[in-house]
Design a protein that fits this description.
Layout lengths: L1 E4 L26 H6 L8 H31 L3 H28 L2 H25 L4 H24 L10 H28 L4 H25 L15 H13 L2 H31 L4 H28 L2 H21 L3 H28 L6 H29 L2 H20 L34 E8 L5 H17 L4 E6 L6 E8 L2 H9 L3 H11 L9 E6 L9
Antiparallel strand pairs: 1-5, 2-4, 2-5, 3-4
Membrane topology: Multi-pass membrane protein
Keywords: Cell membrane, Membrane, Transmembrane, Transmembrane helix, Transport
Subcellular location: Cell membrane
Length: about 575
Amino acid sequence: MNSSDQTVEQGQSSAAISPNPSAPEATPSVSPATTRASGFAPLRYPLFRDRWIASTVSNLGTWMQDTSGTWLMTALTGSPLLIALMQTAASAPVLLLGIFAGATADIFDRRRLLLFWQAWQMAAVALLAVLAFTGVIGPVWLLLLTFLMNIGSAMNNPAWQAIVPELIPRSELPNAVALASASNNLARAVGPALGGLLMAAFIHETTGAGWTFALNAASFAAVIWVLYVWKRQPLFRSALPAERLMGSVETGFRFLRYSPVLQATFVRAFLFTFSVAAVWSLLAVVAHRHLGQGALGYGILNGSMGLGAVLAAFLLPRVRARFTYDQILAASSAQYISTLLVLAFARTTWPIILFLIAGGFAWVCTMSSLNVSVQLNAPGWVQARALGMYQMVFQGGLAIGSVVWGYVAEHSSVKVAMCASAATMAVSLPLTLRLHVMRGTVPDLSPYQWKRPVPHLELEPQPEDGPVRILVDYSVPTERYNEFVHAIHQLRDVRLRSGAIRWGVFRDGNDPERLEESFVMESWLEYLRSRERMTTADATLLQTVRSMHKGDESPRVTHQVYAKEVQAAS
């Protein structure tokens, strides 16, 4: 099938994308002045404020449980490996399910998904509480139910983060991410101490842990209520059939493959969390063996990182106004090298507390910078998948690092494990300095609204027909050849990110001014989806390429569908 179409090949039917008319206006970039002056501005929006308060309550319960659960494992077993596996049980579900969580959040209604997975987490924690109160809990049950609870957390998180742009203007997104960190780390500053206090208030650790688990189960009710009363209005609606799960996963990986900025962010996230995992997984062992502290002392140490994180959340807008993201990330890595070495050699509490506060500050600076990079460099149609893959990499670093450093501590010592993790971060620092994050102008990834209709072909293909090849004929003056080739090769990543499985540009040997762009889609439906996925930044690049085409008419576009034998009617 071959059809000539004089319209732009990325033309968009006005019915294909239905933006939310009441959503905040999207802006492509954030100026330092705006960031510095309005660090708390997102809280002026009621929906975001309600979400933030509910999240803070839930995070408080989660951090209470994190401390109580880890300390309960310390009471149940003396094995550093089993204690470190508590961090693995918390992180492994994201490593295994992150991309699927993002895919489901991009396919299905995010509000309903969030309600389901919040209820899942509540049920898992409630069962932990029952087992703790009855005194039958052991290391295996503790690890298993911690793992099940974090399956819910892994499936919940991409959708939870992806709804933020629906609640606030895009210009407020960096501040919103910082406030989300403040929520988590305000809870981290208070929750571990409260969890340790509850553990210390009872003679039996299982009773204290049971009350902590019960309070955490109740904390999920706040989030469930906010989600239940929320009348969601998505920023992006597609008129096309929803993607299938595995196809959505494949599209997410394809987008990452042709997104260098996201690749740099992911590599930095993995290297950082792999090294820092030694702090999270072995801090309870440091408190118990090196400092002779009980549950309350461990809670205070854990809360020290939370205190530093809260300070970072408040000061981060000013820090971002003075330093680049690359500088912030480099300084944070250097700080954590110092914190790891102090944990290895210090045997008194106060130096460790001070460096843990600084470590908490560096943690939020790093996590906020990387998270903002993902959210501002992934368009709405794939944002949850990008966040899911990011969390996969992030928690994968924590999970793998926890096993590695726990194994080293088990077979050598905690001091050796901390020194090895500090050395790993120091060795990886020169590599990460070459991987730039958030450099230059932030692209405008809002959906581009075309007024041209979907191409109508004489032989209209079915949605599943394919593969489909699209040919675009350009006539380019010889003197602009190099300029055109440079621009159209930038367009290559746009085509491949949005669904093309092959791309090429060719010059006619008989007519040096004639160039033909060719790209292939798996099906006609996938081609229609690629048109919906075009962002304003993509359209700007496409217009730059088309502007070099000479003549008054638009480039000629041909749509070709793979020829299959047609069965004759009997």
